[in-house]
Amino acid sequence: MTVCCVLRSGGDYKPEHVSHLRDDVRRHLKMEHRFVCLTDMSVDCEKIPLPEKWPGWWSKISLFHPDIPKPIVYIDLDTIIVGPLDDLALGHRFTVLQNFWAKDRIGSGMMAWDADLSAIYSAFAKSPAKFIREYVTQDKWGDQGFIRAHTPIEPERWQRKHPGKVVSYKHHCRPGVDPKSQIIGKPVIPAGASVICHHGQPRPWRTPLWDMHKEIA
Asked: CB within 8 A of 69, min separation 6: which ones?
């Protein structure tokens, strides 16, 4: 089992966020696994150099390079693990997120596969600049839009396969505000949840959940 993350220099995410995710995975994934970061930076874990200089989230397409060992569980760096992962880790030909905003779209923040998906990498590598220009609309958005359009296997969805296990911070966990005091309360972690995806702003380290989840580990 290979658990992967991707860190491309120049963005909000730093090597310490890789270490944070690595520690979360170690805490909650009991089966034998290797934690690997595809990156162009120095990180405190096993490293695979990014084979291409694709910018931002497009670096995630490198996950589908045929040399990356499978089975793979990929987790975005804006993810917080709060519960067991073993029941989520195995048994995937290809599983992705159902987009938290639009049910007919997918999300690439957490993916798992044990099939040959190198066709995704090969298709993008033929003309990366062209696809980066094209995938900027709501219907064709970023890496997740490209993956959806070029996968040789129709992916399953985490939320259907493991209901309640993979949730959104914005949709399911954000703290309420007391109407009298205007004090912001603690985030709510849904019962049974194992993975909390932040997908965009706020970044996880800018939320109370960043420190709070360590207390319940």
From this structure: 2
